[in-house]
Amino acid sequence: MESLIGLVNRIQRACTALGDYGGDQAFSSLWDALPSVAVVGGQSSGKSSVLESIVGRDFLPRGSGIVTRRPLVLQLQKTEEGQQEYGEFGHLPRKKFTDFALLRKEIQDETDRVTGKTKQISPVPIHLSIYSPNVVNLTLIDLPGLTKVAVEGQPESIVRDIENMVRSYVEKPNCIILAISPANQDIATSDAIKIAREVDPSGERTFGVLTKLDLMDQGTNALDVLEGRAYRLQHPWVGIVNRSQADINKNTDMIAARKKEREYFATSPDYGHLSSKMGSEYLAKLLSKHLESVIRSRIPSITSLINKNIDELESEMDHLGRPISLDAGAQLYTILELCRAFDKIFKEHLDGGRSGGDRIYGVFDNQLPAALKKLPFDRHLSIQNVRKIVSEADGYQPHLIAPEQGYRRLIESSLNYFRGPAEASVDAVNFVLKDLVRKSIGECQELRRFPSLQSTIAGAANEALERFRDESKKTVIRLVDMESSYLTVDFFRRLPQEVEKVGNAGPGSRDSTPNASNSDRYAEAHFRRIGSNVSSYVNMVSETLRHTIPKAVVYCQVKEAKSNLLNYFYTQIGKKEGKQLSDLLDEDPTLMDRRLQCAKRLELYKKARDEIESASWLRATLRSGSGFLAWNASLRSLYKNGGRWLLIVGAHGFPLWKIY
Predict the structure, then answer these.
(1) What is d(CA 562, CA 461) in angstroms, rounded to the nearest whole number?
(2) In Å, what is the CA distance from 322 to each residue of 314, 362, 441, 456, 591?
């Protein structure tokens, strides 16, 4: 069966290609969920030498100060004996490096490509896969060495920056910590153990490695540490003897160095009894076995995370929409569909499916009645104004019985006041409709992708609403004018007739004289009565207009907006050419980039899910005899139908068929 470590390696490479290397992400980071081994140590702790000893080749840049300035994800994959060793970078997937000196140079060049020639660090990892018969299946993440002071060329924050980067890896519950400490220093001062103790106080995730055992002062040893008495971990400490600087300068072969390391522990009087559990080869096997065990236990939670992210990404892709076709006909169809989606939401606002339509009723039920009540009829129909208008209407010949011309002028001038509330109602409803257009465009998920089309639809809708408003104003003004053009005669016929005091007075009465009668006719009560009659008539008209103005406004504006809001736009859009249609569907570059990233990440998660499910199913199937026979029979059937497969023997001796 293929190693589960190889499965995780492929997912890690895909994560890096998509920019998911942990930290704050829009979605849960798949990188953070994958088990890994982080190599932690202070500068000059022998960290690089341990990694090279595990690999069996010189390949890491060397020098003073901070050499590792980007995380190096080192993926080791065991090949068959006799096959050539080579390395392959994630950023150069088709280029094989068989010369490990060139591989070292590429690590340095790729580091400089992101950080420059400075001493800065970067969290963006470098992926390096090494294929060799001299390694075990294992993935290690080499992190920058912890330091205590900044040297020349380094920013003052470098100490904190490196520690924060290391913490961002080792704090993850799926991270196995490989804490490397030199044996010739007090373990209590170890930078690696210090940070491991803070993030993993129980020691469940920490493997302790003690280097430079051969450089300890004569007569001393590190048994207290290696046997867990000085600092106890849940996993055994492993001692390592790296190549000396002289061996490095002489380019001593790493395979020979491994042999020399085995001989050191086998012949050491201090560590001979631990020799079977010491050395870089034992460390690599120990880590490989433990990492695969952790991966196997984490697969359910990883699968759950992947499924959750697939659901979230598919939901976002639905909101973002699919890519637009280049065909003009398809683009026109898309525009019309988007317009219908907007129109549907706009109608829902008016009909009560969404909020906002009730504001139109508020105009009729609150604003219009309030405006009618505020009209200045008290001032207009005051005794002084009534006297003035009636007298002006009479001219040189005073009225004989009832001042009809005065009545008409008073009524007509009073009714003109209704124009203001009528037009204000039209404008208020127009404002509400425009606001609903704005809200509907904002709520139309499909339109969010196309700012140009949003503006065009908003402009077309508002132009239509202006036309509806103009027609509505004409209509409500006509209603007012109609009330002025023909007065309701029955209203005045029902009024109590004024009693002529001249006819009722006795011949001897003092009031029977012409001067007395004339004085009474023009008395204050007479004009008050005229003002009261006109006020009653105006109130009757006001009540009528309070009901007819809303009818006219709804008919001319609301009903038209529901039925014909984009009709003119539809006639114009059909005349546009392909380039004009493309301009309307010109998306926001940020949104296009977001869709692309979502699509790539969705592909990653689906591929990861398929890989995990396939690996889990094959492992379970091939362990059962009946399952094995059934799978074998299906492969034979596939072969008969033209299929091909390749037989691979995995790390545990299980067969794996790869179908083509």
Answers:
(1) 11
(2) 11, 41, 19, 21, 11
Residues 261/46, Cβ–Cβ less than 8 Å: no
Tell me if residue 395 falls in helix, strand or coil. coil
Mean pLDDT of 576-593: 77
Q: What does each C-alpha distance from 642 to 137, 241, 297, 630, 636 come to in angstroms?
A: 34, 55, 38, 19, 10
* 126-132 vs 86-89, strand pairing mode: antiparallel
Tokens 């592909």, residue located: 603
- Strand 138-142 to 175-182 pairing: unpaired
573 DSSP β-pair partners: none
**Pairing status of strand 238-239 against strand 72-78:** unpaired
* Residues sharing a CB contact under 8 Å with residue 586, sequence separation 6 or more, in sequence order: 450, 451, 452
DSSP state of 638: H
Q: Which pLDDT band holds residue 659 (cuts at 50, 70, 90)?
A: very low
Helix, strand, coil shares, percent, the chain, to 5? 60, 10, 30
Helices and strands (H, E) in the chain, number of each type: 27, 11
The SS3 assignment for 175 reads strand
Measure the CA–CA gap between 88 and 98, rounded to whole angstroms.
Answer: 9
Q: Is 322 helix (H, G, I), strand (E, B) or coil?
A: coil
Q: Is the CB of residue 90 less than 8 Å from the CB of residue 128? A: yes
Radius of gyration of the chain (CA): 45
Whether this prediction's pTM lies above 0.90 is answered by: no
Comparison of pLDDT for 346 and 247, the residue scoring more: 346
Band (pLDDT 50/70/90 cuts) for residue 630 is very low
Q: Report pLDDT digits (tens) over 48-84.
A: 889 988 998 888 887 665 678 889 999 888 888 889 9
Among residues 88, 90, 89, which one has the least CA distance to residue 20? 90
Residues in the chain: 660
Mean pLDDT for the stretch of residues 81-89? 91
Q: What is the pLDDT of residue 150?
A: 73
Which position has the token pair 């006819």? 503
Dihedral of CA 385/391/394/398: which sign?
positive
- Calpha distance 6→555 (Å, rounded): 71
**How far is it, in rounded angstroms, from Cα 243 to Cα 252?**
8
Phi, psi angle pair for 270, to nearest 5°: -85, -40
Cα(377)–Cα(382) distance, integer angstroms: 8
